[in-house]
Design brief:
This protein has 478 residues and is α/β, with parallel strands linked by helices. The protein has helices at residues 20-31, 46-51, 53-71, 86-100, 106-111, 185-196, 215-227, 281-284, 319-333, 363-370, 384-388, 416-419, 421-428, 433-437, 448-455, 459-462, 465-475; strands at 8-16, 36-40, 115-118, 121-125, 128-131, 134-143, 147-149, 177-181, 200-205, 230-234, 237-244, 247-254, 257-263, 265-268, 272-274, 288-289, 292-293, 306-308, 348-350, 355-360, 373-379, 395-401, 406-413. Strands 1, 2, 3, 4, 5, 6 and 18 form a seven-stranded mixed sheet that branches. It has a five-stranded antiparallel sheet with strand order 19-20-23-22-21. Strands 10-9-8-14 form a four-stranded parallel sheet. Helix 3 crosses helix 4 and helix 3 (53-71) packs across helix 6. Bound molecules: flavin-adenine dinucleotide.
Length: 478
């Protein structure tokens, strides 16, 4: 395609994708005085706002409200009826998105001085992209195109109707029985939300549920989900999917036997792949693999003018990681500082109930890396606040080096995503466990479980016969 000079614009920085990562770069760059373009082909706000974090957490909040009504008997409250209006729940989800949308809107970004361009970007060469009939040149490009659902090659799947995260939040009618393929964070969060809102739910997983997490902590989540009558089948090999009238039938093998499950609706939550198709990366000289665009620690691609951040860089799929990447790119691209993306500990949270939050190394990773380690645990069943709330499912698990340096923390239980935060700080600052054990925390709070785990580091040294002897000896001095 030949482009007239009139259709060509030049910027200091051109960001492709207006999701969690791209918006942060564009806002920062423009406010720092760089001439900034932001190209978005679909909705401002990207996956997190429209089809990811925000709708999934809104749906889970509604589901928790329903579960709280059903569970109110344990507090002696018997009046709960808990009728769920699925359409009204969907309206709540849409309402939350609509409330946040202005913050990510083209109008707000244009107000910040960003040139927002609607359309699909494709590289024409190493320093130029086209969007419709416009050509954009820039000193630096940032690819922040995110990821899309990976659809597994299951025989019979393709002609059937199925949900992904891109469509399920538009559904305003309760599925009678939802079949979920994939027991990662997305699959399990949506499984629990639907179960609590009245659907039957079956989850099929080729490996283990929440396979990336510490197995001891993950097991607490899936046991809790099983108690809510979510049928989780792990280690399965799916042979095929077919439709029989209104029923969807999945054929699979597990433990050497072939079997089927049936449902009314299907959700594919089998992982995500980088959104790189049609970007013209070869024309730009940008190297990539099936995992994502290859970047160095400063998030530079093989073309030094071009950075890649967030999900498309294949380093993790979290909004806070994309935002962290944005800060690293701003420091590198605008201030020419050698900032690296791999220095900060990045927390990982699954927002099921109980929540599962981790940061740093888990037990297996630490054993492989650090050799001699200590594992400290504290069960929520021993925490007074958890008992008052009747939320005793879960534990705090801390991994330290032999000298007490904190290597990792994992929490499964109510509000784990909040409770992990002091541990993120501790790891970021290279603190030792004594710092956490010495904190004076308010009573009664769930956070005390973390302090209790930390104190466990010193228990073998403190409460032994030698210390007792010393205390008795010192008592002689009045
Ligand atoms: C159901 C679900 C729940 C989630 N929950 C959480 C959570 O609780 N916490 C959390 O931290 N993370 C969560 N995530 C992950 C989080 O949404 C992503 O990690 C985050 O959105 C990644 O940000 P990004 O900027 O890399 O990409 P995105 O937010 O996906 O933005 C990419 C944007 O680029 C646009 N784009 C793509 N290609 C082009 C092109 N060629 N031209 C122009 N525009 C283009 C897309 O339309 C999109 O708007 C969840 C994800 C899902 C699916």
């Amino acid at each position: 395609m030949t482009l007239s000079m009139a259709g060509r614009q030049t910027f200091d920085i051109c960001v492709i994708g207006a999701g969690s990562g791209g918006l942060s770069v564009a806002a920062g760059a423009s406010q720092l005085g760089a001439r900034t373009a932001l190209i978005e082909r679909h909705k401002m706000g990207g996956d997190c706002l429209n089809v990811g974090c925000v709708p999934s957490k809104s749906l889970l909040a509604a589901a928790k409200a329903a579960a709280d009504v059903a569970r109110s008997r344990r507090f002696g409250i018997f009046d709960g009826r808990g009728k769920v209006d699925f359409g009204a729940v969907n309206a709540h989800v849409k309402g939350v998105i609509a409330g946040i949308a202005p913050h990510d809107s083209a109008a707000r970004f244009e107000g910040l001085g960003v040139s927002v361009i609607k359309g699909s970007a494709r590289f024409l060469g190493p320093d130029e992209v086209e969007v419709g009939d416009q050509a954009i040149r820039a000193r630096r490009f940032v690819i922040a195109t995110g990821s899309i659902p990976a659809i597994p090659p299951i025989p019979g799947l393709e002609p059937l109707p199925y949900f992904t995260n891109e469509t399920i939040f538009d559904n305003a009618q309760r599925p009678e029985h939802l079949l979920v393929i994939g027991a990662g964070p997305v699959g399990l969060e949506l499984a629990q939300a639907h179960r609590r809102l009245g659907s039957g739910v079956t989850v099929l997983e080729v490996a283990l549920p929440l396979a990336g997490a510490d197995p001891e902590l993950a097991a607490v989540v899936w046991e809790a989900l099983r108690r809510e009558d979510i049928d989780i089948r792990a280690g399965v090999t799916i042979a095929g999917i077919e439709k029989d009238g209104a029923r969807i039938i999945v054929r699979f093998a597990a433990n050497g036997a072939s079997t089927i499950v049936q449902g009314s609706h299907l959700l594919i939550a089998a992982g995500r792949k980088p959104a790189i198709e049609g970007l013209g990366l070869d024309a730009a000289g940008v190297v990539y693999t099936a995992k994502g665009i290859t970047v160095n620690a400063r998030l530079r691609t093989s073309n030094r003018r071009i950075y890649a951040i967030g999900d498309v860089a294949g380093l993790g799929q979290f909004t806070h990681l994309a935002a962290h990447h944005a800060g690293v790119v701003l420091r590198n691209a605008l201030f020419r500082l050698p900032a690296r993306a791999d220095r900060a500990p990045v927390p990982r949270v699954t927002f099921t109930d109980p929540e599962l939050a981790e940061v740093g190394l888990n037990e297996d990773q630490a054993r492989a890396k650090a050799g001699r380690i200590r594992i400290l645990r504290s069960a929520l069943a021993e925490n007074d606040r958890a008992r008052t709330e009747r939320e005793t499912d879960g534990l705090v698990k801390i991994v330290t080096a032999a000298n007490g340096r904190i290597l990792g923390a994992g929490i499964v239980g109510k509000n784990a995503g909040e409770l992990i935060q002091p541990w993120i700080l501790a790891i970021a600052q290279g603190l030792r466990i004594s710092a956490m054990a010495a904190l004076v925390l308010p009573y009664p709070t769930l956070g005390e479980a973390g302090k209790r785990a930390a104190s466990g580091f010193f228990a073998p040294k403190l409460f032994n016969p030698r210390t007792r002897k010393l205390v008795r000896f010192l008592a002689h001095f009045g």
